[in-house]
């Protein structure tokens, strides 16, 4: 079944980090935009006279998704990218078309003992969308554990990092790890690590009987990490993944 395409309007645009923006769209008819945390939408736009489409995970930290009216997502610039050219030059009031939601990178009804949420760059967007639901679940179940591992090149690219670090202070069951592949800060915080996300995996003490792992972001990271987790007996039941493909077309 083909998802209908709804006219949407750009409501807000803000910089999250150098070369990374957050855009917020609303439906032109002001209808609700419903989705499950972790899902994504496709945005259609015109580039050099041709219609293009790109998919982005919902990044909004929304407490009441039943009455939600916005689709918020993050995008990092790709050199000569059609989507980058369009969205980085878009202005509030500009129109596009949106379809969705799509995707199965969502939380199960029954929690595992621990969630491992692993992402690179804007691949943490779906995890930010999960925060309100995870907060509720941790409040109901103090034994629930959540480990969020985020990989970027340097501290300046750490989008939503302050929110994740604050949540770790508020909830004993929530842990945040920021991994820098190129440059560490001079005085790192306890949650900051040198290296790529997979350099931290051994420290997590993965247990296929109690853990559920999520992978989102750079395709190479997703493939390499999935192979690592599968070697430790995680399967399709407790290993979810979504790749972000970077296209210039």
From TrEMBL:
Cofactor(s) needed: [2Fe-2S] cluster
InterPro entries referenced in this protein's UniProt entry, alphabetically: Cbr1-like_FAD-bd_dom, FAD-bd_FR_type, Flavoprot_Pyr_Nucl_cyt_Rdtase, FNR_nucleotide-bd, MRET, OxRdtase_FAD/NAD-bd, Riboflavin_synthase-like_b-brl
SUPFAM superfamilies: Ferredoxin reductase-like, C-terminal NADP-linked domain (SSF52343), Riboflavin synthase domain-like (SSF63380)
GO terms, molecular function: oxidoreductase activity
Domain FAD-binding FR-type: 3-108
Protein name, as recorded: Ferredoxin--NADP(+) reductase
Organism per entry: Sedimenticola selenatireducens
């Amino acid at each position: 079944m083909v998802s209908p395409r709804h006219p949407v309007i750009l409501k807000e645009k803000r910089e999250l980090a150098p070369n990374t923006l957050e855009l917020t769209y609303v439906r032109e008819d002001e209808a609700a935009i419903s989705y499950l945390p972790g899902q994504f939408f496709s945005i259609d736009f015109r580039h050099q006279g041709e219609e293009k489409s790109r998919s982005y995970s919902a990044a909004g930290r929304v407490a009441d998704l039943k009455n939600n009216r916005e689709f918020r997502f993050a995008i990092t610039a790709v050199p000569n990218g059609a989507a980058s050219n369009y969205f980085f030059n878009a202005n509030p009031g500009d129109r596009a078309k949106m379809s969705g939601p799509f995707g199965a990178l969502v939380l199960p009804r029954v929690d595992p003992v621990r969630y491992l949420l692993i992402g690179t760059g804007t691949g943490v967007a779906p995890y930010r969308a999960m925060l309100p639901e995870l907060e509720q679940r941790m409040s109901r179940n103090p034994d629930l554990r959540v480990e969020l591992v985020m990989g970027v090149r340097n501290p300046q690219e750490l989008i939503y990092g302050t929110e994740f670090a604050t949540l770790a202070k508020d909830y004993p069951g929530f842990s945040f790890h920021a991994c820098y592949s190129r440059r560490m800060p001079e005085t790192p915080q306890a949650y900051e690590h040198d290296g790529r996300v997979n350099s931290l995996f051994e420290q997590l003490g993965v247990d296929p009987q109690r853990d559920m792992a999520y992978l989102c972001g750079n395709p190479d990271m997703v493939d390499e990490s999935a192979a690592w987790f599968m070697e430790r007996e995680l399967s399709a039941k407790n290993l979810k993944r979504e790749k972000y493909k970077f296209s210039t077309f």
